[in-house]
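sorry for the late reply, my laptop died twice this morning and i had to redo everyting from scratch. anyway the thing you sent over, i finally got around to it. pasting the sequence first so we're on the same page, its 202 residues, then the predicted structure underneath. double check i copied it right bc i was rushing
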Amino acid sequence: MEGPVRLWMAQWSSRDEGWAWVRMTLASTLGIDDSRLRIARDPRGKPQLVEGGRDWHFSLSHSHGHALLAVLEGCPVGVDLEWPRPRSHLLALASRYFTGGEAATLAGLDASERVVAFYQLWTAKEAVLKASGLGLAHGLRRVSMHWEEGGWRPAGFEDVGAPAAAWRLRALPLPHPWIGHLAYVGDPRPIVFCDNGLAWTR
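ok and here's the structure:
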């Protein structure tokens, strides 16, 4: 079986302290000294590991003073984390950034469910765009989802490296009220949540 997706969630008090934690976590996971760890940005600005040996990838998201970090060997990975908050113009935002079908689904939900579903959809789309390396500039509408059994599922993806059916998309069980998604292409992988040296698999 291919290796697991490893996830960490931690406080993000400042950029410097946050990136120090990211470097420490990555170095520990790769089994190398922090001084040997090299991170560079690709032409689109995505941070990535520059490692001459094994094929490691990571994705980082932070929201409301906390960060979520994913590390995966063998293929790119994307995560997105959001702290949901009510918005007075939520449906207008949905019409602007999402597909017509997605906006209609959100409009049909009651107000409290709509807020959660909005952020679930946003994090699902952004996780895919991060894993693809394209980022938000590629356009949220080009990663379309459909609502099924209280969650969003891939429907039709445009120009993100693989068809929708090839993507693994997971809503993450995070501390309330954070909402987050994980995305990658390929066979299913175990997800291991790590915390202060302890880990558990979901």
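The chain has one domain: 5-201.
thats about all i looked at so far, will dig more tmrw
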